[in-house]
Amino acid sequence: MNVFRILGDISHLLAIIILLLKIHRSKSCAGISGKSQILFALVFTTRYLDLFTTFISAYNTVMKVIFLICAYVTVYMIYVKFRKTFDSENDSFRLEFLLVPVTGLAFLENHSFTPLEILWTFSIYLESVAILPQLFMISKTGEAETITTHYLFFLGLYRALYIANWVWRYHTEKFYDQIAVVSGVVQTIFYCDFFYLYVTKG
């Protein structure tokens, strides 16, 4: 494990904590796409099924459990605890436009045709587009709360750091996972315009 991987994980976790604190303190989920959060919960669920079959390290296990818990707590807060503040009218992205092609691609392009591997591949592809309902919601309303932009910034930073992690691993270990790298680059591209606005508008 290298510093880029660790910083990427920290950035990812910080993004989720920022979002949870925002919802908890304001007692509102206004401006947050519940559909994106459902997709992220699905990403973690399908990716971390290996918790039941493989032990990699204590760090790996703890981070997986934390991400799973945080994902489902976020969905619970949006759709149950603070559902009256949820802007369902503007959170209108059609999830089937993402789920159908991602599912098909996971069956067609994977490392091995086994249930766990297909689900892992599905999670990688889905993560690359899971933020689209949130970005669509922002583009539809034309605004985003400061705390929401911080959340998106750290999510984008997490992806950028993971690209650095892959470059480092390729140079030091000759490790290259085409599915993860291509999907990660695609996901990072979705954040590029947001990064520009975040930096220029402060």
Kindly describe this structure.
This protein is mainly alpha-helical and 202 residues long. Helix 2 (34-47) runs antiparallel to helix 3 and helix 7 (146-173) runs antiparallel to helix 8 (178-201). It has helices spanning 3-26, 34-47, 58-81, 96-108, 115-129, 132-141, 146-173, 178-201. The mean pLDDT is 89. The protein has eight helices and no strands. The chain starts with a helix and ends with a helix.
Secondary-structure blueprint:
Elements: H1 3-26, H2 34-47, H3 58-81, H4 96-108, H5 115-129, H6 132-141, H7 146-173, H8 178-201
Helix pairs in contact: 1-3, 1-7, 2-3, 2-5, 4-5, 5-8, 7-8
Element-level helix/strand string = HHHHHHHH
How many DSSP H or I helices? 8
Rg is 17 Å
Task: State the major sheet.
Answer: none
Give the proportion of residues in helices. over 70%
Counting DSSP E segments of at least 2 residues, the number of strands comes to 0
Helix-strand category: mainly alpha
Straight-line distance between termini: 33 Å
Q: Which spans have pLDDT < 50 for at least 5 consecutive residues?
A: none
Task: Please indicate the percent range of residues in DSSP E strands (runs of 2 or more).
Answer: under 5%
Mean pLDDT: 89
| Overall geometric form | globular
Q: What labels would you give this structure?
A:
single chain; 202 residues; mainly alpha; globular
